[in-house]
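Tutorial handout. Part one gives the primary structure; part two gives the three-dimensional structure as tokens.
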Amino acid sequence: MVDGHMSAADESAVAGVRQRVADLFAEAGVDFSPHEHEPVLDYETAAAVRERFGLTGTETKSLFLRGKSGRYAMFVSVEGRRLDTARARAALGEKFSIASGEELRSVTGCVPGCAVPFGLPPQVTLLLDSAVGQERWLIFSPGPPTETIEVEASDWAALVSKTGNPLVKY
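Part two.
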């Protein structure tokens, strides 16, 4: 992505992610009504979008990780929380590093700055921060950095339960 514009390949991959997310929402019985806006790739723009649409939830964040074994995981938390590498290593059972943007694209179809914890390949482990469950409403992108959706925590839990991805609590 350059200056908020995606390549044709990224657009196609992100459209696939969005469709998988929409399908997951339908399977979980959760309303899928994203807000459309300028690309959101940082917290400042996310805050402006939240204000414009009157969203009251907490922004989620996802960090794509690669284990020493080559296994992938996505750390899912909320804005303001940091990844404790020792705690994550203990939870995942191996050392890991942050995956490259190219790995994020090739494995998940997501673009850097807009990783989505839904619609992932089934071998990607979700490392779910307990802080996510403490929020009433959660905000995230369904794939395209130009869309934002807000869901209740109970709907988030229903979505996570339908992913089919291994789930590790953090």
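Part three, for discussion. The longest strand covers residues 58-67. Strands lie at 35-36, 58-67, 72-78, 96-98, 125-128, 137-140, 147-152, 167-169.
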